[in-house]
C-alpha cells in the first residue's frame, strides 16, 4: 500500500476509536468490559510477514494496539519471493525469534503441517479467555474459513481474500459489438477481434513464470473438468487437464503481449493499466490501482466478470495470506492477541475503505463501504465468486512451491507455443515428477 493509504487508515482508526467512547482496557471495536486485553502487558512480540501491501498500514495502527494491550510489536516485512525462501529455513532451525508468521495454506499447508510448523488456532478461538466474544469468527464466510484450514485445523486467519476474475476493457468490447463473454471459447473469439499488435494492443494477458501460473490456471483446469490429483494419482496429463493447458497456452500465445511466458504475477495488470491489453484473468488484488487515474490509463473503462466456464461450471479459487503463530515461539498467547486485533472487524473495515480485499463479510456489507463503493460491479463479482470458489489453486502436494513449479511449467510451455503432442510430452514428464512428490508423501 502507499503512504497515502496508510495515512488514510490511521485517520479511519482514530475516528473509529474516538467514536466508540471506550477507555481502559476496552478495545475500540468492542463493547464488553470483561475481556482482559492487558493480560500480556509488557510483553514484546515480533511479526514476520510477507508484505503484500498491508505492512505499512499495520505499522500505522500499532500505537493503538500497544495502548489497548500493553504489547509492543516489531514488524519484519519481506517481499513474497524472499519470504517463501526464508521462512522454511527459519522454521527448520526451530527459530523462536519471531512470534507471528505469514502463511498461505494453499501453498504452505501440507508441508507445514507435516513438519509441525503450524499452531492450531482452534483452542484460541474456542476459549473465551483468549478471544473476545465479539470477535465473531463466523463473520468470515464458510469458504473463507475453509481456506484457513489444513487437515481440519484452523492454522491461520486471513488478512486478505483472493479470488480469480476477468478484467476487461468495456470500451473495446462495446466497439467490437460483443456481449460480455461467459466461456473460454467466447473470450478467445473476443480477444481475436480486438487483438491489434501493430498498434500495441493485445487481446489477452496471463501469468507466465511457471510457479506463478497455477493461480489463474486453476480456473482453466476446473472449468475443463480437470483436477490436479485424482484418487491419489497425479492428473496433469489427463485429457481434461491437457485441454485446459492447451486453452491457457493458446489464449496467451496467440493474443498475449511479447514475452508473456516470462510474466511474473503483477505484469498482466501492469500491461492492462498501460492500455496495452484488452483483458486478463487473475486475482482480485489490482482494482484499486487500475481504477486510479494517476496510475492507470484505463481507469473508468474497466469491466469485471466471473471466470469463464467450459465443459464444467466456472470455479475460481478462494484463499489468501494470513497470520499464524510460530509453533516455536514462547509468546503464542500474546501473538494471538495481535492476530485477533489485526483481523478484527475494525481493522478489516478500515482497510476495506482503502480498497483492500477484506475476508470479512461485515467489511463488504457496511453502509460506509456500500455507499462509497465506486466499483459495485467488481464487488458483486468478487462476492459471487467466493460462493462458487474452491480452495485449491495448487496441487495438494508437498512441497507446495515445487509442486507449483512442476504443474506450472506445462502452462509456461503452452505460452511458448507448445501444442498437441509436444505439450502432451511435457505434461507426461511433469506428471511423473508430481507423482514422485506424491509418492514421497506416503
UniProtKB/TrEMBL annotation:
Pfam families named among the record's database cross-references: SBP_bac_1
Alphabetical UniProt keywords: Signal
Keyword Kinase attributed: no
Entry keyword annotation includes Signal: yes
InterPro entries recorded: Bact_solute-bd_prot1 (IPR050490), SBP (IPR006059)
Organism domain of life: Bacteria
Leader sequence segment: 1-20
SUPFAM superfamilies named in the record: Periplasmic binding protein-like II
Protein name: ABC transporter substrate-binding protein
Organism: Micromonospora rosaria
Amino acid at each position: 500500500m502507499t503512504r497515502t493509504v496508510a495515512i488514510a487508515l490511521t485517520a479511519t482508526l482514530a475516528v473509529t476509536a474516538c467514536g466508540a467512547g471506550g477507555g481502559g482496557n476496552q478495545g475500540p471495536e468492542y463493547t464488553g468490559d470483561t475481556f482482559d486485553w492487558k493480560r500480556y502487558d509488557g510483553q514484546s512480540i515480533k511479526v514476520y510477514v510477507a508484505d503484500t501491501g498491508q505492512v505499512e498500514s499495520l505499522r500505522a495502527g500499532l500505537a493503538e494496539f500497544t495502548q489497548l494491550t500493553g504489547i509492543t510489536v516489531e514488524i519484519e516485512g519481506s517481499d513474497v519471493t524472499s519470504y517463501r525462501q526464508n521462512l522454511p529455513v527459519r522454521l527448520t532451525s526451530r527459530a523462536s525469534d519471531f512470534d507471528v508468521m505469514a502463511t498461505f495454506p494453499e501453498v504452505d499447508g501440507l508441508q507445514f503441517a507435516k513438519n509441525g510448523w503450524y499452531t492450531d488456532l482452534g483452542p484460541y478461538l474456542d476459549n473465551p479467555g483468549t478471544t473476545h466474544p465479539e470477535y465473531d469468527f463466523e463473520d468470515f464466510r464458510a469458504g473463507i474459513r475453509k481456506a484457513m484450514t489444513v487437515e481440519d485445523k484452523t492454522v491461520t486467519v486471513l488478512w486478505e481474500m483472493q479470488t480469480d476474475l476477468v478484467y476487461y476493457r468495456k470500451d473495446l468490447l462495446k466497439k467490437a459489438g460483443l456481449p460480455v463473454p461467459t466461456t473460454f471459447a467466447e473470450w478467445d473469439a473476443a480477444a481475436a477481434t480486438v487483438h491489434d499488435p501493430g498498434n500495441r494492443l493485445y487481446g489477452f494477458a496471463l501469468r507466465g513464470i511457471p510457479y506463478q501460473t497455477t493461480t489463474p490456471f486453476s480456473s482453466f483446469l476446473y472449468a475443463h473438468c480437470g483436477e490436479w490429483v485424482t484418487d491419489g494419482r497425479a492428473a496433469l496429463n489427463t485429457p481434461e487437464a491437457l485441454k485446459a493447458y492447451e486453452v491457457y497456452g493458446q489464449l496467451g500465445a496467440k493474443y498475449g503481449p511479447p514475452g508473456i511466458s516470462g510474466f511474473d504475477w503483477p505484469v498482466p495488470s501492469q500491461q492492462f493499466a498501460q492500455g496495452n491489453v484488452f483483458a486478463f484473468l487473475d486475482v482480485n488484488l489490482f482494482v484499486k490501482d487500475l481504477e486510479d487515474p494517476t496510475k492507470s490509463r484505463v481507469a473508468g473503462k474497466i469491466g469485471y466478470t466471473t471466470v469463464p466456464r467450459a465443459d464444467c461450471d466456472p470455479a475460481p479459487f478462494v484463499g489468501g495470506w494470513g497470520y499464524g503463530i510460530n509453533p516455536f515461539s514462547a509468546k503464542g498467547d500474546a501473538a494471538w492477541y495481535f492476530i485477533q486485533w489485526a483481523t478484527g472487524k475494525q481493522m478489516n473495515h478500515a482497510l476495506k475503505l482503502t480498497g483492500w480485499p477484506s475476508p470479512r463479510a461485515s467489511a463488504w456489507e457496511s453502509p460506509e463501504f456500500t455507499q462509497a463503493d465506486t466499483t459495485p460491479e467488481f464487488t458483486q463479482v468478487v462476492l459471487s465468486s467466493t460462493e462458487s470458489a474452491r480452495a485449491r489453486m495448487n496441487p495438494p502436494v508437498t512441497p507446495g512451491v515445487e509442486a507449483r513449479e512442476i504443474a506450472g511449467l506445462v502452462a509456461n510451455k503452452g505460452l511458448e507455443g507448445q501444442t498437441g503432442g509436444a505439450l502432451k510430452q511435457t505434461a507426461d514428464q511433469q506428471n511423473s515428477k508430481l507423482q514422485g512428490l506424491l509418492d514421497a508423501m506416503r
